[in-house]
Design goal:
The protein is mostly helical. It contains 3 helices and no strands. It has helices at residues 2-22, 28-40, 42-52. The chain is elongated.
Amino acid sequence: MFQSIGGFIVFALDIWAIVSIINSKAETSKKVLWILLVLLLPLIGFVIWFFAGPRPSQ
């Protein structure tokens, strides 16, 4: 039960990260690389994006 809840939380955070990456002002090639990082390494990729990734344009 807790594994599925944890998996859902990671999934939701990754979706949030991907949407934020798409809405950022970064170049398309950088967006693709960030999205691939988040998709291939869901938890670690999210943490790296959270601290070093492009921020969404406001």
